[in-house]
Amino acid sequence: METLRAEVVAAGTPPLPNAHVVSKILSQGGSNCCSSGTFLKNAGILDCYSWSCSRGEDALCSQLATEVEGSAALQEQIEVIKKDNAQTRAAFLKMKLDQEEVI
Length: 103
Prior knowledge:
mainly alpha, 0% strand
């Protein structure tokens, strides 16, 4: 997890939201719950070896991974909108100051 965050920071891009990082790690582990459970086990959240994966649990794990990815995508969109909003606000204030100088 720290490696993924360090790569993003080293690339000069803004830090990724936590949900996005977790989503990427879970999706790298595979689609079944035991593969995703490896990350959770390493994080101290789940003991995958003592957890038996049934079809229903696999489906729920897959659905959860999909929802986490969707959440991460929405979080990214929010960050882009915040950045655009800040740029628009700065442009508006500059235009307002320029207009006041003309008057």
